[in-house]
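= Protein in question =
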Amino acid sequence: MGEPILEVKNLHVHFETHDGTAEVINGIDFTIERGETAALVGETGCGKSVTVKSIMGLLPSATIPEGEIRYKGEDVLSLSDAERHSRRGKEMSMIMQDPMTSLNPVLTVGEQMMDVLKWQGRPRLSLSKLVRDALSTGSKAEHRERAIEMLGEVEISAPERVFESYPVELSGGMRQRVLIAIALLSEPDLLIADEPGTALDVTTEAKVLDLLDELVEERDTSVLYITHDLGVAREVSDRINVMYAGEIVEQAPTADLFANPQHPYTRGLLESIPTLSTGIGDGIEGHLPDYTDPPVGCRFVERCPHAEPACYDAYPYPRQTGSDHATACHLFDGPPARERHESLAADPVDIGTAPWLVAGGDAPGDVSADGGTDQ
């Protein structure tokens, strides 16, 4: 296997607030191989968008006290702003979360797409150079042709009309297709899709996800999907990283995670999904911890039905529970997934075995691709 296209190692992201330092991301690790599609799954507020914006360099107010973000082997955190800017939008691209607000309302779709083609990866210019460059007509026709071609590739039936339209004249699904077209204009090697269907109805979301999956497969693009929906993650990803309160609590290939969910949070997410036989799930009681005063041990401890006193004090480092499966929970044994946790592994915490393993229980209901469950 070649070098991964993206490696995130021990990433910490902090924000200064009136209440103190918010430790939003707390030492996460994950890898995306070339051509692989990975998902980052978790409830709203767990740090998914902060993670991807840190990768893209879009968090000027954040502090990253520790960690590495390696893109094609190069630590992007050590690059200058200009060097990161040259990669952003050209080699690494992002589909923003809300199609209703991510497009500029006072520019036509065509103007916005041509701006991307013209300026992506280029250094920032002075005002005089910007005006002079804007007045030049050099490759305008080529850019227009490329933009309309891309609109056609995202299955917009009248690309020339949409090219001349303002965002307000388009439906939500059409705007989302425009955002996908803009993100793929530069043929990026890494595409980050931040909940691309969150503002759409279920039918439109399914069509958009199918389209995006088809487009990235044709281009062999590596993709990081951000979603709170395990059904979507199952449909689109090769590998899933489950995130809770700024930590990745479980990692596994998609099929393995659904066949053998281990962390109580993962199981809670699966059990929360409505089923035909049981109706709407109960959900997970409680709420995310305060990032300015997070628990010393497990961040899920206050909501975990299997928590023991030791869970409040002992950090549940991720441990290998299978050949390619890691879980950050004291209910499971296994060698540390990261070398930096070897000292913690030398002093193991025993809170017993996962109750569902003792009882011989099955995994939570099988989640279908549309987000429902088949039981």
User: Anything to note?
Assistant: The chain is about 30% helix and 20% strand. Residues 105-185 form one domain.
